[in-house]
Amino acid sequence: MANTEGLTDEVVSSMLAMPSPDEERQLHSRKHAADNHPRFPQRALARREEMMESLGEGEMPAARVIRASRAPKIHSSAALKNKTQNIDIKEQSITPTPPAEIMERTQQKGDSDRPTDSVANKNSHRPVIISDSIRERPAEPNNNKSTSATAQPKKRESRFKQRQLKKGGSTNPTVGGFPSLDFAPVGSLTRKGRMAQGQDSSSTVTSQMSSAQSTTQYSTKINQSTSPQRANDIGNVNESMLANMSIDEIRDGVEEVKSILSAESIAFLRNRAKQKRNDQVTQQKDAPAREKITAQNNDVGGPSLTKEMELELEEKKVREGKEKVAELLSKIRTPEDMDLAYNEAIELGLAPSLPTSSLESTNDKNFTDERNSTLHTATSLLRSTSFRQRLLGARSVCNILEEDVKAMLIERQRSCFSISTDDRMSLQKSYPPLLPVAIRCILDESLALAHTSSGMALLSQGLRSIHCLMKLFVHPYHVVNVNPSSIGVYDPFELYATSFMSDISHVPSGAELYPPTTITPIEKSGTNGSCYRADSSAASAESDAKVFYNDPPWILLSRMRILPCLSDVIAFLSKDVSSGGRIQVATLQSICGILAMLAVRLPGAALAIANHKGLLPFLASYCLSPRPDESGALFDTQNVLPFLILLCTLARQSKDVAGLDMPCDSIMPHLQGILCLQTDNENELEVQIWSLVLLRILVRYGLAIEHVQSLISIAAPHVAVQKPQNTICVHFLSFFADICDASNVIQSQSGSQLSSIPEQDNSLPMSAVWLSSSVKSCTTSLPALLRDCSSDDRDSVLKMASSQLRFLSSFATAAKQSTTTASVPILSKESCRSVIEGILESDLLKHALETSLGWSYRASWLEVDDESRAIALENEAIACAFVISFMDLAANFATDNVIAPKLLVAVLSVLNNVKSQNGELAHTNGNNVHVARQSWFVEAEYSVLKYLSDIGAGENGRSLILAFAVTLVGRMNVGHEALAYFVFGQQDLFRVNGCTDLFRSLFLGELSVASRDRKEQLEHSAKLFNKGPLNSLRCTADFSTAANARQERFFLPVGTTWIWNVLSSTITSGEAYGEDQGIKNATGIVAGALSLLMQLEVSCPLQVNTGTKLYHLCNVCLFPEEILRDDTIAASLSLLFSQLCGVPSKESNDFVVVRDFIQECFQHSRLSRAKKATDDEATDTDPSLATEKLLLDDEMRALDDFVGDLCESFIEYGGQYVFCARFMRFFFRHDFPTKITKSVAEKLLPILNLLSVEDETRDSLQLSLLQSMKGGLPSMDSSSRDSSALLDIFAAALKKVNKLNRQDYFYMLSISFLSRNMACECGLEAMKKRLSGVTSAIFYDVVLTSKQLLCDKSGTKESMVGRVIERCLDYSANFQMQDKETQKLWQWTPSNESATWKMALDLLDCVKDD
Question: Which residues contact 890 (CB under 8 A, 6 or more apart)?
Fold first, then answer.
């Protein structure tokens, strides 16, 4: 078959509709015999023209054609008819027909189709079709060719075909390979055992008479009809054939077709059928017009509409459509003309409508499939050789991606930017695999044509598309929105800077968010270094596109050379601007957005961007230079804002970037000019806000100090009126606070000697003098602000008050560092006292505390519920900022006898309310809180805890504050190391019975001295939150060495169960301190942890699952005996176990406890990292199902290994401790897998008597037995029955163990299970075999206990366990205490086993009858 790769489906369909080579040869022979060249039929010419024009610009046939110099032979419809006539004649050879009649019939048919001589002579010399894929060769002589098709000798069969006929006797060409197109006309599919329509005469002769006649009649019918009618007749015959076939036959036929044809061929045929149905619908729409033409012809007496007229009508319609398209295309000169032409083409039905967002209507599968198909079509246009097609594809793709970005941001805003909305993996299936590579190549191609308006449009759409793809596929934490006001969506990172007013970057590093990627950079060559070549390989392009979807910034920097490309783009834009042009706003925003997200991904990329001479200089001059417009605005806010956000992103990465002359130093005059303006709208106000954010960042680094005086002068008119409506005043006051902090840092470094401060830094100490008026204004305006506050403007008042309080606190701290009171004015305590008392009397503090402390006592961020908190993210940030500023100022009055008690009561009241609301265990909802939100809540809670530690809360609230601190540490993240270090350093907070010093020292050492990296991270965190000299505002330090693993570098986060994890840790301190000292230290650490947990569980339980707590407590039994023999540890373990398991609970809760125990065991083990394929279904599972079916193999393996270690420890030394026996009993709970229960019973078989606890109370024993039983009698309480395997375990143990007494725990447990099963008559024969071999005393207890259970009409679990305890503890009920006659009667021996068993059953039957 010919190679059709690269051709469209329409071209392939047209080629398949042409005659076969055999038909061509016979047609040529017939025409050559008449010594006349065939004319070029009109319909065939139109068909050929349509086929050639359907080839898109740049498309080439996949095969090269070698032709002779003579004119090509074009097959007409008449030739096809002659061929069909010849087939009919051959098929009718069974009934002989005179040759003369045949020739006459053929001659008549040929004469009717042959044109006149004049027409034939006119069309005899046709122009030769020229093509690059056609080569000329000399025409071969054809003198020996027969002049008649009928006289042509039969072609000799090949040896291969002869061998096949001789071997199998079948000529089916579909056997053993792809079906041959010579066997049957294209489009006719045959089933096994059925004759193909239009089959060759050689195979027809061997068929039956009836088949030949039916085929002949059908073929004759087809030949006498027109071409459209013929297709309809074929369809009708096929439908009739399908109607006569059974379902099995149709299914067999479909399977046969699928086995023969490839998936692409089947898809092609289905598409062709769909196109045929569409054509039928079109014909039905054109039917009224045709009827009108026919009616007109009939009215004038003309003939009816013939098939030639229909063809002419169809060709005229196609011609008019092409002419209209050509007319529209000829008018296109600019991108605006293309829009108008495209809209007109849509109205005329000549072009499809543009696609919409691929993220919308995802529930409609049909719509999604159509959308994806449209997106793939638009993507294919990007690789077209036609510039207009590339431009159209780029426009379509850009529109789709921009709509997708808007939908994504709205969805993330709806979920409060939770990390759970990270659906990048599922989005990859909605986009073409090579889309990123195609768009990147568009940038290189558009640069060559950027001097034209269309080339500039293509360049803009390429940049916008890459920008959108980065937003869609970078991690949500790395998305930088350079124009948030355009869509009204502010993510928590932006609110952290503008509402919380902090400059720390809590964006996690790329190594934590992206999978490891190994990419080989493209080697440099002599070509332009900014071009992306993808190594000229399709495989490398596919690889790059795949990596792009996983880590877009990495592939853009490493392989796609985006920085040199953007440099070339900016170089061209600079030339365009110098000639009077302007850059589109969308283009500028895309460039800034791409650079910002690259800088966030890699700090090194930020430094490369800042040092690149072709990127920031032009952007700074273009965006920040004054450009007055018609509205009178001096700056274009749409250009300034993206560039300022880009600079803030770059500056946060490192001080090296912020300290460069370009961009930060050189733009200072522009920033001063922006701040001098009076804002008239929200956009200008937002530009001023981000200008102050950038200045805050520079001041935090200790930069731009020489401009402090001028900036304070510029701010004077803005801060003169400190009212909530004055938004810019809030940010100026925050900027003033940073100036005071920088002054404090410099004075502390210089040893409080003003003379040692460098001359260029004299402005910082003097800044206190310049800010004195603003400080006084804050102290006077804040009380009035609180008095006039209402519920409507409460949030704006909180924002203004938080900035004022922060300014007052920073100013007071800086004033303490000065030794010369004459040079630095000191803020009076009386004014600060009045401010604090005013806040205590208002409702603002209570509202802010309830908001900022609302997630306290939550053990994990996964347990928060945003749906129940109707608070906007901005209001959250403002409330947390207010609490931090107020607590910092109130810390100056920690010893005040008036302020401290009032504030303590207010804080403890809110904490008690929050604890009562969050007291119940919250189940995980799967929504992880955004890292920026985590930070402002953690910082607010830390400020409250720090104040409580400073003033001393006393014994009354110690447990409440301890639980508050423990949950706070569990929710801290990377960057909060300094906060955690402070918490662990509070000796009074963790002092319980004087044995927690080693416990605190353990965590302090892990934070500071465990490794060099952790020490550097702690120092960096201390500088971030204590306002020290910084090298970076990122939450992670610039480490001096490469880390081997993340666990060695960072200590935080410690997780939900960090204090419980101490009990399941490994003791390694003996290596450093010696064996004796190591054991002593480990004993102190474990004892301290147990003491803290005991205090918390009694007074303020943590929100941790009971099963999780029990698992970590069980790990204590694995510690060395030197630790277990400690009296404090033994007492604490017993009390904790009784606290957790000493309260009766419902069956469902027992099931949850065991499930949580197994899951925590699996998570703690290092056997496997496999995750469940589906969501956790255990909470929705019926507890009556077998536990084994609900567990993974890894979970069972981890649990089995853990139980095995516990059994070995219990056998070796744990059996002598009561708490170890209680923990081993825990595994006999009915919700544990039978395999685990059997394992414990078999391993502890020799010492099962040690499971009994000396002097155990009856209530404690009954509770332990109740927790192991599923229920009472199944017939009474509908409880499930015990498995036979479990009953076999207890029976076998009773047979083998001789040390068990009737008062032992395991003996009572076995009697409970066996008597319950016997009373409910569950498998009596199996029960008889199971009890065969036990002693007569045991059999006697089982039967008599079963009798008592049946006598008790309640049948509950409690009554059953009570009966068992009564019988086993009753000494008189012992078998040995019965009289000899009774003992003889109940002898359970092999000789009288049947009689005794029958007597037992009769006894139970009598009880039932009564």
Answer: 836, 899, 903, 947
Task: Answer for the pair 88, 109: CB distance below 8 angstroms, yes or no.
Answer: no
Given this model, what pLDDT does residue 6 score? 52
Distances from the Cα of 891 to the Cα of 3, 501, 886, angstroms: 83, 21, 9
Task: Identify which of 687, 673, 466 has the alpha carbon closest to the alpha carbon of residue 561.
Answer: 466
End-to-end, the C-alpha distance of the chain in Å comes to 91
User: Under 8 Å CB-to-CB from 164, ≥6 apart: which residues?
Assistant: 170, 171
234-280 pLDDT, tens digit each: 666 676 777 777 777 787 788 777 777 777 778 777 777 777 777 77
417/927 Cα distance (integer angstroms): 9
φ/ψ of 65, rounded to 5, equals: -105, 130
pLDDT of residue 939: 97
Cβ–Cβ contacts within 10 Å for residue 411, how many? 13
What sign does the dihedral 668-673-676-677 (CA atoms) show? negative
Tokens 């925003």 belong to which residue? 589
Given a cut of 50, is residue 175 above it in pLDDT? no
Residue 680: C-alpha distances to residues 498, 637, 677, 793, 825 (Å): 19, 12, 9, 21, 36
Q: Kindly list the distances between the CA atom of residue 88 and the CA atoms of 181, 199, 201, 249, 279, in Å, as whole numbers in the listed order.
A: 20, 10, 9, 29, 30
Tokens of 662: 């370009």
- Cis peptide preceding 141, ω within 30 of 0: no
1403 C-beta neighbours (distance < 10 Å), count = 14
Question: SS3 for 1076?
Answer: helix
Question: Where would I find the H helices in 1026-1117?
Answer: 1046-1049, 1058-1061, 1070-1073, 1075-1099, 1106-1114
Q: Is the pLDDT of residue 371 over 90?
A: no
Tell me, rounded to whole angstroms, the distance of Cα 1142 from its chain centroid: 43
| 169-178, long-range: CB < 8 A, 24+ apart | 171/202, 171/203, 174/260, 178/1, 178/260
Model confidence over 783-813: pLDDT tens digits? 888 887 777 788 899 999 999 999 999 998 8
Average pLDDT rounded to a whole number, residues 1350-1361 = 84
**Cβ count within 10 A of residue 659:** 16
pLDDT for the residue 866:
62
The token duo for 289 is 């017009």
- Please compute the mean of the pLDDT values over residues 628-642 and round it to a whole number: 78
Q: Which 8-state DSSP code applies to residue 1283? A: P
Rounded CA-CA distance 413/418 in Å is 8
Q: What are phi and psi of 1064, to 5 degrees?
A: -110, 20
- Of 35, 124, 122, nearest to 74 (Cα)? 124
- Interatomic CA distance for residues 305 and 293, integer angstroms: 8
Span 855-865, mean pLDDT? 80
Could you tell me if 928 and 419 are in contact, meaning their C-beta atoms sit under 8 angstroms apart?
A: yes
Q: Which residues contact 1014 (CB under 8 A, 6 or more apart)?
A: 977, 1006, 1007, 1008, 1048, 1049, 1050, 1051
Provide mean pLDDT across the span 1311-1323: 84
The Cα–Cα gap between 27 and 327 comes to 40
Range with the largest mean pLDDT of 129-133, 799-803, 897-901: 799-803
Are the beta carbons of 30 and 148 closer than 8 angstroms? yes
